[in-house]
User: Fold these one by one.
Assistant:
Number 1:
Amino acid sequence: MPKILIIEDEAAIRRVLKKIISEENETYEVEEAEDGLKGIEMISKSDFDLVLCDIKMPKMDGVEVLEKVKSLKPEIPIVMISGHGDLDTAVNTMRLGAFDYISKPPDLNRLLNTVRNALDRKELVVENKLLKKKVSKKYDMIGESEGITHIKNMIEKVAPTDARVLITGPNGTGKELVAHWLHEKSDRTKAPMVEVNCAAIPSELIESELFGHVKGSFTGANKDRAGKFEAANGGTIFLDEIGDMSLSAQAKVLRALQENKISRVGSDKDIKVNVRVIAATNKDLQKEIAEGKFREDLYHRLAVILINVPALNNRREDIPLLIQFFAEQIAQEHGTTAKTFSASAIKLLQEYDWTGNIRELRNVVERLIILGEKEVSELDVKLFASK
Ligand SMILES: Nc1ncnc2c1ncn2[C@@H]1O[C@H](COP(=O)(O)OP(=O)(O)OP(=O)(O)O)[C@@H](O)[C@H]1O
């Protein structure tokens, strides 16, 4: 639902603009501000997809508003509204980053065309940002062991469905990587995957973090805020370390999963959300259930599909490939050429006890690249790989 803000000191013009825009498309949500200061306050508190802003206003003029919004939220397109005397300024604002300008009194067709174009551009900018983020991260999943091949097959099958997935396995085995690919290979890939590390958020804050809150609902809640479920709308929410979530938060998550709706802390208004849930844990949830620390009903809601990522010690045949992959990745990060590892160095690393899993292997490879010889030898491994 595109949100549009009109900043205009003349109430009559505000009213006309609002009427034209909201009648054009009932999904447009139009809000008003009677001066620049109020407008900036609203923009910093809430997300708008488009701002229409008058040039001549008391307190803060349109050019100042434009500059402020550009530094605050550069992705929001701004259309300036110019009166008789300030057409030149309007043209100049385009150089300062305004999307376009319209003249008073507003011409219906020109206004609506500009609004549509500006909203389209906003969507493109946001999509582009997401794409850039995706390619800048390296998400290759390396390995040819039975364990990894099975996981890759599961991802291909499960990703395009909306089924909830519970990913289990020890720390550093690649659970987050699996979640990433489940999202990436789904139809939700254009929308965000929002990650929540349930273990890192204090239990009294988790509810507001997940579901948002309204102003005044608790000390410190000085403005309305959307939670992660709303942020992930249309996409995926990844609840990492779900085994560490408090029982009261588990109850709230259960409701969100059962009813596909949430309500912000302090509000009784239901908000419908369309979010796919993927969860991960390194805990044995059956044991947690038996001890009364995890809700069984939530477990069954989450674990429609179970993916267990095996420990590195149980797929040692992947170690040579992983070493080579990390050597190249690290060289790229350091801006150097990749070092090679001698066969005996690789063999020795393959026999290590990798309780810290892939994360630990990567750290060791990085250390060996920094400290070892041009070709990392068995001796280098003996000298530098110790934990
Ligand atoms: N099969 C793989 N191929 C290449 N890199 C991998 C693979 N599995 C994991 N990694 C890398 O190892 C690191 C740890 O993986 P990840 O964060 O996904 O593990 P995790 O199981 O989610 O860990 P934790 O439980 O501690 O959150 C990441 O840098 C990830 O990119």
Number 2:
Amino acid sequence: MSYDTAKAQYAEWGVDADAAIEATLKIAISMHCWQGDDVVGFEKRSGSSGGGIQATGNHPGRARTPDELRADLEFAYSMIPGAHRLNLHAIYLDTDKTPDRDEIEYSHFAPWVDWAKAQGVGLDFNPTFFAHAKADDNLTLSHPDEGVRDFWIEHGKRSREIANQIGDELGSPCVNNIWVPDGYKDTPIDRMAARSRLELSLDKVIKEDQPKMRDAVESKLFGIGVEACTVGSHEFYMGYAIRRGIALCLDMGHFHPTENVADKLSSVALSVDEILLHVSRPMRWDSDHVILQNDDVLQIAQELVSADLLGRTYIGLDFFDATISRTAAWVIGVRNMQKALLRAFLMPLGSLRRAEESMDFTTRLTMTEEIKDLPFGAVWTELCARTERPAGMNLIGALDAYQASVAGRR
Ligand SMILES: C[C@H](O)[C@H](O)[C@@H](O)C(=O)CO
Ligand SMILES: [Mn+2]
């Protein structure tokens, strides 16, 4: 079907397809560096991910150096419509030096900033509180040992300083997200002590004013090895973010599988100014599958649009699948997030709202089901054409060719 025909069909529902395309292209998505190398990073000090997170699979072509990762990222961005961001973790430093986590500084990440400037990509940052000998107890900022806590506090402070300088260099605030794996395998006696320690440590980490970055904190229901208690629970961080006036990160894999993260957005937005999303796909647990255009993701996008939250929500992705092409995983995931947003912008929200307000739930349901039959694919293809990005079979060909090139070389 031609775009003009599709556009006319949407117009019958009072929807402007051109405006939906433009709105979608304005949204920058923060693509996570760690999908590119299975959360290994470039430290010469440690091995596996740790912290109860795990990339599974051994697909050929994993990026082993910053240059390889940047080449993969450049390819991925060339397959994705619009301008986006890169979400860096502190273990992805690019330096010949071997600083420990409490020794990292901006210079270790400066090559990423030069690259980001050249590519027109924004940068976000994360301290890495896992995959380190001092995190082997599954306790970092809440560790009972003051020395261990101080080590991680220093890491957190330095990460904020780095994020601040990145934000300054790039002229766009750098979101610095704190996730700690802290918790207990078996039932603790003194949860309050651990949570009080975490709060005190976080206060020390975020004490300095760093105007070019934004603080976010990420909760989790449980992780492998900390099944009985996660110190940084949702309630803990929700309260903390409200009290300290910082952003709350909601990771779609960090709640009970029956919970709907889309439903949380409006509730949370009444209490915090800013939200960071880690869009992910949990399967039975926080399995970090590549995101789909499934109901969970579609509803997230719909809520962001209908509740007018896009201006104060940072959209980041968080998944890592090493059983498929890593570059394809990025491209599929970011494009799916964009497709979800485009679908949301293509909804006749005014009519739907009117039906709901007048308690006409029959019309509301009829409409939501009928609009599923509108020619969304033609609008997406047009968006790709306008941004000179491939769609359909052409995309598959490009992804395959790149994967073949890296699989052979690495
Ligand atoms: C690597 C990320 O920081 C990590 O995935 C974190 O955001 C998380 O979701 C841990 O489960
Ligand atoms: Mn996450």
Number 3:
Amino acid sequence: MNTGDAMDAVGLTNVRKVYGKRDNEVVALDGVTTQFRRGTFTAIMGPSGSGKSTLMQCAAGLDQPTSGSVLLEGHEISELDETELTKLRRDRIGFVFQSFNLLPVLTVRQNVTLPLRLAGRPPSRSRVSTVLDQVGLAQRSNHRPSELSGGQQQRVAIARALISEPAVLFADEPTGALDTRTAQDILSLLRHSAQTAHQTIVMVTHDPVAASYADRVLFLADGRLAGALHAPTAESVAERMTHLGAFADDRALPLPRLEKTRGGQHR
Ligand SMILES: Nc1ncnc2c1ncn2[C@@H]1O[C@H](COP(=O)(O)OP(=O)(O)OP(=O)(O)O)[C@@H](O)[C@H]1O
């Protein structure tokens, strides 16, 4: 059995994912091998349709690869039954998706605490307050989702993912609906979580500045790895994306969405 390296929170070996059959076959991932070390923050980038979401779904155990191995927190996911997979995801993994999946009848606080209450591990009031404060929603804890902006709803989803302090956090465009300042705060929070709480963060993004908060950027093209950048800057990421054709059609490089302070450091 492949037990992998204990330093890796997630390890993919030769992962292939094919959707559809015969004439309708789409090869979404075509032999991807990579590792996500514990306590690291990785951004996944690539042109539309390059397989980013599929990679994340497979790495998170939400979807099974057609072939190849995914080792998640020491477990080969193809060897787990649905109950074991559900337990692994519930206890060790956090998710932030583009659709926030908030329950409209529950308040912010109730939405954030629901997964842990369902798991029989209700968080303390102070833990809830800390997380709501971290995402800038302390004043909104009794509001319902319909009373919040899109960006605020996204922050509820982020708080819900962070509250259980998951070993691995998968996030699909977590700052997509946020204004510049809030996006900076959330990205700094994610980086801080990786550095201090040794959480492993895997984030899909289209934004080179968001990616520059990560320790490493993995590039995908046509379902295959197309290189990596360590200690990325927004400029180096944007340049690489342009070469991958992600910013094609004669547009200028997208202006970094987030500002940086002097010396290239993020606030
Ligand atoms: N459920 C599915 N059934 C059939 N094809 C799929 C399915 N999910 C994804 N695909 C195809 O697999 C390929 C990779 O899709 P994926 O969503 O992983 O790309 P992506 O890089 O996340 O794209 P985007 O940046 O546009 O969100 C695409 O060609 C897509 O059409």
